[in-house]
Structure formats: C-alpha cells, structure tokens
Amino acid sequence: MFKDKCVVVGITGSIAAYKAIDLVSKLKKKGADVHCVLTESAQKFLTPLTLRTLSQNPVITELFAEPHKWNVEHIGLAEAADLVMVVPATANLIGKVRAGLADDFLTTTIMATKAPVLFAPAMNHQMYVNTLVQENIASLKERGYVFVGPGYGALACGTMGQGRLIELEIVLAKAAELLFPEKPLRDIKVLVTAGPTREPLDPVRFLSNRSSGRMGYAVAKQAYLLGAEVLLISGPTEIQPFPGVKRLMIETAQEMYRAVLAHWEDCQVIIKTAAVADYRPKTQSREKIKKQSGDLLLELSRNPDILAELGKKKKEQILVGFAAETEKMLAQAAEKARQKNLDFIVANDVTQEGAGFAGDTNIVSFVFPEGQVKSLGKMSKDDVAKHIFQEIIKKRQAKE
Ligand code: CTP
Questions:
Q1: Which residues line ligand 1 (CB under 6 A)?
Q2: Does position 69 have pLDDT exceeding 70, yes or no?
Q3: H or E stretch covering 174
C-alpha cells in the first residue's frame, strides 16, 4: 500500500520509543522504503541495529557522520522523503522545530523537507498541557505540520492523562492520508475573502468591526489542502495565510470590491467570509479631526454589496456567503441567500458562546435559498471549513 514511498521515521527520546520498532516493521510490510533517524536521547532507548535490521537501511544517528552515499545526506533524505514522521515526538523536539532550530540530523531534515511532516507526541501529561507545549503545537499546526494524538491513559511516570503515544493504527491511517491526499479540488480556482474592512475617517481613525479573519483563513487553508489554487483577499488581520495560499491585502470595502471584481471570473468557487463594512464615512478628512465642544455627527455613504454584485454576474460559479446575525438567524439568512443569488449561506448567531468572530470555534447552519437548513454543532473553524467544502463538492458533482 505504501509501495515506492520514502518514509523517514524520526525517533526521539521518550519511553514510547520502543513502539517505533513496531511502526517501522508495519511500514516495511506495507512496502515503504523506511529510513530511521534517531536523536541522541533516542539512542538511550533503542539501538540502531534493531532498526537497521527491520528497515533494511542504514540508521542515521549523527549529523556529521561519514555519508553512506556521496551527497549532503540530511538534504538528500529531506528531498527524497514523501513523508517525515516523528514517532514519538517529545516536547523538546517539538519546541526545537517551532523555534526554527536545526542542530541535529532530525531537525535539519524536518527543516529542509518539502514533504508533509507528521508528529505523534508522547510525554508526561503535565508537560503536554503546559501552555508552552500547547503554543508550540498550535503554531506548528498553523504552518501546516500535522499532529496525531496523544492518547489518554496510563503513563510511564505512573499517572493517568493525555500524553501517551496514540495507537499505531491511527498513526498509520494519518500517514496514509498524507501520502495519498484526496484532491477533489485539483484544477479548481477558489476565491476567498476574509477579515474586516477599515473605513478611514481621518489619518488616524477608521470604522471597522470585530472580524478576526480566522474563519476565512481556515476556509482558504481547506481549499488549498483539497488541491485548489487559492486566492485570499483579506482585510487587515494579524493571521498568516496557510503556506501555498496566495494572499492579496486590502483595507477598505471599495478596495475589496475592486480586487474581487478583478479576479472572480477566473474562479469556479467564491466564498465571501469577509465582514465588509456596509457604510464608509462620506468624507475622509486629510487632517486629524480635532475635538469640538459639542457632539460630532458622522455622515456615512453606502458601500457596494460585493456579494450581491457577484450574485447578479455569476455564471457557472458556486457562490457562498456568510451571514453574521444577532436575531431571527435562519429567516434572515434564507432571505439573504435568495436576494444575493447564492448557492448557500453559512449563518452564525454571533451572540452565541463559541460562535462568531473571536475564538477558534464556530456554530453555523447552512441555509439554502429554497429554505432547507443544515445545522452543525459547535466545532473548530477548520472543521466548519471542511463541511463547507463537502457541500460545495456535492454541488459541483450535481452540476456535472
Ligand atoms: N457582503 C459583501 N459586501 C458588503 C456587505 C456584505 O460582500 N458590502 C457579504 C459578506 O461578505 C457576507 C454577506 O455579504 O458574505 C453577508 O454579510 P452581512 O453583513 O451579514 O449581511 P448584509 O448583506 O450586509 O446585511 P445586514 O448587514 O443588513 O445584515
């Protein structure tokens, strides 16, 4: 099943290291070409000889050892790899990769490879829940590194908790997913808008909203992972796009309007996650507005409704909108889906705990113009994005 796939198995110094022996044997049985890399502490738990015998390849233990073949070996292996797995991955190794350190063979390979990298962490529960470790994992995930586990159960240190190496079957299933990713959106161009817009009032002030951009960035990431070419048109946000997603930054609704209109026609799927300001200050003062003794009245002009405009123009495109509501969510969303000629709208009640702009979760319903509703429970924004594309892929298949 993994025939002709070059899999690098990095092993670090955790008591779970002995399970890597079984992993290597299973990978070999599946036909993979397995190369084991042991960190210095892993060698205290395992001998290279065992792994060499099972993998039928030299085992790498040192960065500057005499090469087996003439090339810069860690770069050669990083280039040849179809998948790099770190099983088990200690807090130390995860921290080093997050910090961008490359001081041994394994960390250098991880840094130099273009292949997917899968970590299966194993450590003491308190270490695992430490915010430093959690932040490192979150940051690596944002950059496209993949994690599986850890599982819950009895730990070698005598305690119970989350921290055990997850079952090898689950690690292998994840490896299969990474080696043979499904790419149902291959050859498809997807346009995603995300984040807030800013409508300037004077050189130092603007009108904006609470959108963080997280939902739109998660949608762009999912589209990319499913094989699409992705253009993300984004308002101001701190978030970095998933590697591979092309991003165009804009500030105002009018800039977003122009950017979207310049690109939509080439795209087959358009998802408008952005929280676009409906109004902008009628005049923009060149100088900072000075305070007066009385009140200040702001006059606002309507911004173009980008989504409604696309709804009028669209041909074969699948067009998906978002609706942030605070009351009568489903009725309002259905009305918007009809008015804006959408395939469906993703509605969320931003007043609900766990939904809306801030945070990593959302609670949404898909509302179709004909009135059907599909409600999803509370889930991560990545999972919401996965569901959105399941729906889009169904729609595309129905149109074919
Ligand atoms: N939208 C847009 N251009 C605007 C306003 C909104 O493209 N000027 C898009 C958003 O990206 C979103 C959808 O329209 O996909 C719904 O946005 P929302 O603000 O919830 O709805 P509105 O249509 O603006 O209606 P209202 O503000 O009255 O609820």
A1: 253, 272, 274, 276, 278, 303, 305-307, 321-324, 336
A2: no
A3: helix 168-179
pLDDT tens-digit series, residues 101-139: 999 999 999 999 999 999 999 999 999 999 999 999 999
Task: Please answer whether residues 37 and 60 qualify as being in contact, where contact means their C-beta atoms are separated by less than 8 angstroms.
Answer: yes
Task: Give the three-class secondary structure for 54.
Answer: helix
What pLDDT score does 71 carry?
A: 56
Domain ranges in the chain? 6-179, 189-281+297-399
Supply 329's token pair. Answer: 């969510």
Query: Is 189-281+297-399 a CATH 3.40.50.10240 domain?
Result: no
Q: Which residues are identified as catalytic?
A: 157
Residue 42: band (very low, low, confident or very high) from pLDDT cuts 50, 70, 90:
very high
Cα–ligand 1 centroid distance for 305 (angstroms): 7
Cis peptide before 181 (omega within 30 of 0): no
Domains 6-179 and 189-281+297-399 belong to one CATH topology: yes
**C-alpha distance from residue 51 to each of 80, 174, 216, 260 (Å):** 19, 22, 44, 54
Residue 20 CB neighbours (<10 A): 29
- For domain 6-179, give the CATH number: 3.40.50.1950
CB 153 within 8 A of CB 124: no
**11 has which bridge partners?**
38
Q: What is the pLDDT of residue 70?
A: 47
Work out which ligand 1 atom sits closest to the CA atom of 321. 15
Q: Which structure tokens are listed for 28?
A: 């070999």
Burial status of residue 328 (CB atoms within 10 A of its CB: 0-12, 13-18, 19 or more): exposed
Task: Please provide the distance, in angstroms rounded to a whole number, between the alpha carbons at the two ends of the chain.
Answer: 31
Ligand 1 pocket: which of 301, 336, 367 to mutate (most atoms within 8 A of CB): 336
Is the bond preceding 150 in cis, omega lying within 30 degrees of 0? yes
